TrEMBL record, chain A:
Protein name: Formate dehydrogenase
Family to which this protein belongs: In the C-terminal section; belongs to the prokaryotic molybdopterin-containing oxidoreductase family.
Originating organism: Phocicoccus pinnipedialis
Domain 4Fe-4S ferredoxin-type residue range list: 141-168, 186-216
Family matches, as Pfam families: Fer2_4, Fer4_7, Molybdop_Fe4S4, Molybdopterin, Molydop_binding, NADH-G_4Fe-4S_3
EC class (word): oxidoreductase
Entry keywords, A to Z: 2Fe-2S, 4Fe-4S, Iron, Iron-sulfur, Metal-binding, Molybdenum, Oxidoreductase, Repeat
Enzyme Commission (EC) number: 1.17.1.9
Any single Gene Ontology cellular-component annotation: membrane
Cofactor(s) recorded in Swiss-Prot or TrEMBL: [2Fe-2S] cluster; [4Fe-4S] cluster; Mo-bis(molybdopterin guanine dinucleotide)
Keyword Iron-sulfur: yes
InterPro entries registered for this protein in UniProt: 2Fe-2S_ferredoxin-like_sf, 2Fe-2S_ferredoxin-type, 4Fe4S_Fe-S-bd, 4Fe4S_Fe_S_CS, Asp_de-COase-like_dom_sf, Formate_Dh-H_N, Formate_DH_asu, MoPterin_dinucl-bd_dom
TrEMBL record, chain B:
Residue ranges the record marks as coiled coil: 23-50
Keywords of the record: Coiled coil, Membrane, Transmembrane, Transmembrane helix
Entry's transmembrane regions: 187-206
Keyword Membrane applies: yes
Name of this protein: DUF1641 domain-containing protein
Amino acid sequence: MSNVLTSVNITLNGQPMEVPSKGNLLDYLKWKGIQVPALCYHPDLGAIETCDACIVEVNGELVRSCSTTLKDGDVVKTGGSEVFESQMIAMDRVLANHELYCTVCDFNNGNCTIHNTVKELQIDHQATAQTSKGAPVNRGSFYRYDPDQCILCGRCVEACQNVQVNETLLIDWTLERPRVIWDGDGSTLIDESSCVNCGHCSTVCPCNAMMEVNMEGEAGFLTGMLRDAFRPAVEVTKSVETGYTPLMAISDVEAEMREDRIKKTKTVCTYCGVGCSFDVWTKGRDVLKVEPSSDAPANQISTCVKGKFGWDFVNSGERLTKPLIRDGNEFRESTWEEAYELIVRKFNETKEKRGADRLAFISSSKCTNEESFLMQKLARAVVGTNNVDNCSRYCQSPATMGLWRTVGYGGDSGSITDIANAELIIGIGTNTAEAHPVIATRVKSAQKLRGSKVIVSDLRKHELAERADLFIRPNPSSDLVWLNAVTKYIIDNDWHDKAFIEEHVNDFDALVKGLEKYTLEYAEKHTGLSKEEMINVATMINEAESTVIMWAMGITQQRGGSDSSTAISNLLLATGNYMKPNAGAYPLRGHNNVQGASDMGSMPDRFSGYQFVADDETRAKFEEYWGTKLNAKKGQNNHEMVDAMHAGELDVLYLKGEDMGVVDSNVNYVREGFEKLQFMVVQDIFFSKTCEYADVVLPAAPSFEKTGTFTNTERRIQRLYQVMDPLEGTKPDWVIIQEIANLMGANWNYTHPSEIMDEVADLTPLYAGVSYDRLEGYNSLQWPVERDGKDSPLLFTDGFPFDDKKARFYPVDWTEPTEYAEEYDIHVNNGRLLEHFHEGNMTYKSEGLTRETPEVFLEVSHELAEERKLRDGSLVRLQSPYGKVEVRTIVTDRVYGKEVYLPMNDSGDGAINLLSSSIADKDTSTPAYKETKAKMVVLERGGKSPLPAHNFRYGNRVPQNGVNVEAKWAREDYVFPGDVVRERRGDK
Amino acid sequence: MAKATTKIRRMEVDPEEVRRKELRELEDQLIAHKDTLNNLFRLLDQLEEHEVLNAANAGLAHSDQILTRVLKALGETETDKSIRNALLLVQGLAKFNFEDIEPIILKVNKGLLAKEERTGVAGLFKTLISPEFIEGMNYLLNFVKGFGTPVDQLKEEQGIKDAVHTDAGEIRKMQNYPTSPSSSSNGIKYLGLAGAAVITVGALFLRK
């Protein structure tokens, strides 16, 4: 903090003043309202130093203000002929690379940095004419690069190299006419490179050089009209123009006109739990582009390919648009009235004749907080059962359990910025670069730019593992053992944080006793890790000022998932890595609103804010507010619901936004359960696999078509605004639930989701100060939120939420992984891919994503390939005791030995859950997806590779520090504009 | 005991019912915008009578090709240069103050209308010492002196600002850099000079 407050005394344009010493001069000048041209500078990228336009005079020297930090006594002049001449030289070089045809440019939307700079400087003519760089437009599925419009500012390269850290883009400064290239290993094409299409480059491009293809011919009034006439129109415009001023004026008018038809709406991404927010640009229902910005609290300028480009599903012709009612062995389309009448009749009949607990409700992490709140309110207050759950049961409940046991709150300890600023970042069982891509960017840049250390523990050598300073590969489901061993080693060496433990944690002795058997020798035997590897981990934690541990399904989806999560928290407590910035526990929530779905009480034993149903006082509060008596009996979770279907103890299931028949484990068992239900309602945007078993299917609306809030992995609550009206025939989930509730006599009167959130705030201490007003625009709140609106970016500041404010060590023991018969010799690891989301109901609707990765594939190791004579494209059958899949193979060094990797992105013959079992975490019933084994039968040795050659996994990254501006400066034809000016004036 | 099925029987739509509904919607729109539509129909009738609608239809149907031809023709026939010159002329004209130019025009008219008089040496001498001649000569001398005034001074006196233009700064040209602004902008400079000259002439004539 001291840096922020430090100031220096300078003279600025003759006036003495005190200015902050932190930050660069350009930012300060802009803050003071002094206009200095700057084209390459971007607040999220920092000084790139390529454009030279921001030259000012400091102590008599002409310098780039973007990279100048001030010191006491500096004399700064922002005007004068030398400064101006230097800036004009820089602008000339810029304009020699960019053709100004603003009126017929799709980027002419009021935010073009070049256009605005030329206008502000009142430049009317350029000395050096723009000329072609002699390379064609480079076109990918989602964006394209026009070298002749590129000013070589390097923002895109900086973003790719230092923010996203995919390290694909670079400027080839060795070319006579430099330009941006991809990978630089021969092809240089977007489509044949390691580009993951995250879109950072097109987001930060100051002009139309790097542009989303959906913008082409769509944004401008003239751009769609001009095809063959485009070039002649540009030539004639250039011939007749007498200067840029009229051109700017006309294009400004055209840009204003665009405001009438291009709508920009802030929303929150509907894919993973990072919670990226951005503006969506739409023309009618057409999505032109997604534009994240510095204002976005979780992601700033970052997105992944799905968030930036994966929205085709919204306008897919496969969307459900009419309710469906089962009629024998087929469905028939119906009216909403008829579907509602049937639902309400069946619900009421079952409730009256067989009791409320014969009905069950499953909410969705895809839906808003308000919708999850209403779903559990429908279950509890209208139907009278606590049989309500959500899909966090499949993934995150064990992490929450581990944190509840030890630190009291089941949420990330801090924000994504804390991960980015930690000295040591540990990732266990998380393929972060593919499952939470934007968080991975922060980890990678922390390592690359700030020297943070990264430890990865995983079965598979995924991208983050490849980059890690230390990559360890324990045996499957043995994480608890090495975690306990590392904790014990730290304590044995007296490296634990005794002061922190003394002041803030109970039960240290119990922990020490519980760790007794976890010696390095024991751990070595059961984890397959070497003692040195574990000592390395312990040493790195000990040496780091701050450590964060991120974990995901590799930990939670084990029989001992809750215990392993607990072991992580024990380790963090023992080393004092709670209650301070840049430290703590980060269970990475999988879906956009998996945190919120549980926060809102769609759980069998808790109301919103994790208030216990069994607690009389709590229940009385809800009863009074809702005006009805509530059921005190704990309900069934998802897993128990399926068992109850088989046992004939559950008659009715109402499920929304969840393809449970694909994503639950042991889906053959789940589907058989569906068949045994008396009545099943599924609410979705597509006719999913689960819909096939329904009696009524209701067409819902996706996130773009509704308002509400999502809560991300950082506990950050954010508003999403309605981008477009619900597709004709569909309704937002909250509207559907309310209509069903009211037909059952509930008499709810919500006219807007904000009223639902007001009710949540009234009933839920964790959300007490949350309101739509406080969440306006890009504002956000991280729970707990006090009534006055004070939120908690750092979760634990004043102790822990227990009576004595002290955390608790919770000793845990190892649950050995599921035993399989010897014939099941292949360990089937499973998880996400970057390009697709879960079963792929949304992402396979995108032509670009499907082109990148058209189908699921099985990663096999070189050893296994050699043993079974497999190659890319071989067709194999994996058979487990529970089912079989047929899938084509990819031979890769990402997996080892007899461990294979089957992504979860298939709802047909390759669906992973045809193999997985119903064995679950002993504490939360979360399926042990990661304890799946199978035997392999080779069906066809040849065959076409399931992964196209243009997939980014076959690219070759070219790491370098940013845009490598030094290479530009070293070119023979480059002289710093300030030096040109000084030479002209004979100063040198 | 619901078995999985993907078979969906679409709702039978009565085309007549749909038609009736759509017609009703259209009818509502027509009534709501009756006056506007009457005006629009009158306009359309007139456009039709003048073949405008047929021409517009044809033009729009082939707009890209037509536009390409027109734009290429503009370039090939140097029409684009004519347009540019016209625009420059318009910009130049903006610098005139026509109210102040009126006396100049009157004086030129007077000169043109003056009767041609033949005279001898004595007559010439008489003319030379006449107040009109002396005043006229002073006028013309000032005019000539005005031409001799540095352009920068004139711009400053008359508040004329140059258009901002960038400055070439490539290394390969560094050896040839003059200390004054780049030679590559000569065209623009000449243009500026021409404009300044026009203004100067105008200013001289402004003296009454």
